Amino acid sequence: GAILDVVYNHTANVDIFEDIEPNYYHFMDADGTPRTSFGGGRLGTTHYMSKRVLVDSIKYLVETYKVDGFRFDMMGDHDAASIEEAYKAARALNPNLIMLGEGWRTYAGDENMPTKPADQDWMKHTDTVA
């Protein structure tokens, strides 16, 4: 089977999403500056449409290309709820699908918006994602 290495933790260019809806698709500092990772914006997966980018693209890859799994680069940069939603949606299409990722404690979501990151601490308490 095919396992794809996916990199949602930083986008190629902040401006791509900023042209669609300014100050929305990325995690932001309090002053509205996009938080970046390796030169690209950190996809703000706690924002509804940003989560849709993650979940819907995972579903598309499974449905269209029959992908058997995903390995997430810096998965700890995302919130656990979004990763879990993507996993469940993908498993509905492929019951044998696996999902794993780097669980570093690197979450840097929006300021003043507490959430559970998809890091190694969360992975200790889930049987779905490694």
UniProtKB/TrEMBL annotation:
Gene3D superfamilies: Glycosidases. It comes from the Bacteria. The lineage of its organism: Bacteria, Bacillati, Bacillota, Bacilli, Lactobacillales. It comes from Streptococcus pyogenes. This is Amylopullulanase.
